[in-house]
Design brief:
InterPro entries: ClpP/crotonase-like_dom_sf, Enoyl-CoA_hyd/isom_CS, Enoyl-CoA_hydra/iso, Enoyl-CoA_hydra_C. The protein is of the alpha/beta class. The protein is built from ten helices and ten strands. Helix content is 42%, strand content 16%.
Length: 269
């Protein structure tokens, strides 16, 4: 995978998901600004390809997801693609989206959503799958299917949104189809912070680079811990994570570096 931004000939029609590497941080840009980055099948396919590559790349320490154009993170899935849908098509579509979102959610490195403008429908779900979410004051969040298409979310995506903002609030958003402003999203714990428009990407870059400079296995252990919480065997299963961290070359390097009063050189091993 090239470290340069990936350009495609269909960017202004079918859209694209652009890849840019900055040191140990990868930025993925949902790029279809003329349609508020509404996601096409092409964009979902490219996103899936990028995520598959990231799952195999042990040198990437953090991933940032953002929208192109400054007006939207993503305004859902392009509605024109649903014209001939049947019930079976709907099931297949939700399974496909679940697969892509799960790939994003389960990346081994931390993920950050940098949100300007609308994060609606599929855009809301992609943002929810990220570990951290920073947004500008004018950002808006919604799952407006009850007002627009009359479709629904999968159980997995309902779970994600419910865990991120509270199940009662998630149901209220789905029932009313209203837009939730950034301040409310911050107050309910959905957002990490609100950042002014002209400072958003610089702030996210600083956070991502700070993460990238830290011990990768320590960061990884904090990321995966959530899936063990609440499991009957969670504490016992998490011992494998602890064993991997304490048995790593990085931990030995950290101890040596501390005793030698120098900066550790993390390798993620």
């Amino acid at each position: 995978m090239s470290t340069q931004t990936q350009e495609t000939e269909n960017r202004h029609g079918e859209g694209a998901v652009l890849w840019e590497r900055r040191d140990d941080v990868v930025w993925l840009t949902l790029s279809r600004p003329e349609a508020l980055n509404a996601l096409t099948w092409t964009m979902y396919e490219q996103l899936e390809q990028h995520l598959a590559a990231l799952h195999q790349d042990e040198t990437v320490r953090a991933v940032v997801v953002r929208g192109d154009g400054g007006k939207a993170f993503a305004a859902g899935t392009d509605i024109g693609q649903f014209v001939t849908f049947t019930g079976e098509d709907g099931v297949a579509y939700e399974k496909r989206i679940d697969r892509v979102v799960q790939m994003l959610e389960e990346l081994p490195m931390p993920t950050i959503a940098a949100i300007q403008g609308y994060a609606v429908g599929g855009g809301l779900i992609l943002a929810t799958a990220c570990d951290l979410r920073f947004a500008t004051p004018g950002s808006r969040f919604a799952a407006p299917m009850a007002r627009t298409l009359g479709n629904c979310l999968s159980l997995d995506n309902l779970r994600r949104v419910g865990h991120a903002m509270g199940f009662m609030r998630a149901k209220e958003l789905l029932f009313t189809a209203r837009m939730m402003p950034a301040e409310e999203a911050l107050s309910c714990g959905f957002l990490t912070a609100i950042v002014e428009d002209d400072a958003l990407y610089d702030h996210v870059e600083e956070v991502a680079q700070r993460i990238a400079a830290n011990a990768p296995l320590t960061v990884w252990s904090a990321k995966v811990a959530g899936k063990y919480l609440g499991r009957p065997d969670g504490e016992q299963a998490y011992e494998e994570v602890i064993r991997r961290v304490y048995g790593s070359a990085d931990f030995a390097e950290g101890v040596r570096a501390y005793l030698e009063k120098r900066k550790p050189q993390w390798k993620g091993r």
